[in-house]
């Protein structure tokens, strides 16, 4: 998974949205943020975010299949993944939900799962003149072998491509309306 994530991050650098940013990084943590605009109204974008299998990249899953992902958008809900072996992964846990404008999740994504780190992802959806804007902010802190700062660019690029995929899914849904 680690080698796959590094290779994929390298390939994604050129295709990431222009509004993806490493806001801060240090040996003990980092903060990254991605922003995208969509033609969907906030409530529809909120629903689209909750349909994780329809937009999350299979390359950034443990099972290799987006269909194995699920997100239960209620406090205590799980962003989970079924594994072919019958096991599973808890990627994040829903801590706060205020439809259709804000979701806060806690947990360690990707390679951070095996480190002594934790993270907070805040998803903010705001109305715009043409639909809505999405901001995904992820902060991770703790002990990561080799330092958390080295992971920030890869995590930023992976989240940026996911935000871009969600925006594309949102545009597809907007055309169907």
- Cross-sheet strand order for the largest sheet: 1-2-8-7-6-5-4-3
DSSP summary: helix tally:
3
**Helix and strand element order:** HEEHEEEEEEH
Estimate the helix proportion, in percent. Answer: 25-40%
Q: How many strands, which pairing sense, and closed or not: the largest β-sheet?
A: 8 strands, antiparallel
Question: What average pLDDT do the residues reach?
Answer: 89
Number of strands: 8
Structural class: alpha+beta
- Silhouette: globular
Radius of gyration: 15 Å
| Distance separating the two termini | 37 Å
Low-confidence stretches: 1-18
What portion of the residues fall into strands of 2 or more residues?
A: 35-45%
Describe the structure.
Strands 1-2-8-7-6-5-4-3 form an eight-stranded antiparallel sheet, with helices on one face. The N terminus is likely disordered. By secondary structure, it is of the alpha+beta class. A hairpin with a 5-residue loop joins β4 and β5. 25% of the residues lie in helices and 38% in strands.
What distinguishing features does this structure have?
177 residues; alpha+beta; 8-stranded antiparallel sheet; 8 strands; 25% helix; globular; disordered N terminus
């Amino acid at each position: 998974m680690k080698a796959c994530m590094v290779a994929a991050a390298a390939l994604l650098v050129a295709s990431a949205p222009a509004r993806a940013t490493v806001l801060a990084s240090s040996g003990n943590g980092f903060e990254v943020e991605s922003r995208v605009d969509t033609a969907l109204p906030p409530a529809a974008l909120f629903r689209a975010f909750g349909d994780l299998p329809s937009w999350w990249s299979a390359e950034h899953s443990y099972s290799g299949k987006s269909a194995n992902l699920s997100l239960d958008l209620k406090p205590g809900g799980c962003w989970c993944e079924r594994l072919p072996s019958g096991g599973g992964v808890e990627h994040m846990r829903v801590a706060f939900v205020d439809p259709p404008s804000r979701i806060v999740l806690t947990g360690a994504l990707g390679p951070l799962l095996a480190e002594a780190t934790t993270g907070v992802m805040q998803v903010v959806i705001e109305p715009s003149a043409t639909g809505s804007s999405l901001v995904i902010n992820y902060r991770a802190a703790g002990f990561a072998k080799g330092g958390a700062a080295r992971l920030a660019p890869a995590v930023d690029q992976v989240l940026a491509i996911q935000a871009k995929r969600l925006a594309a899914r949102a545009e597809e849904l907007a055309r169907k309306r």
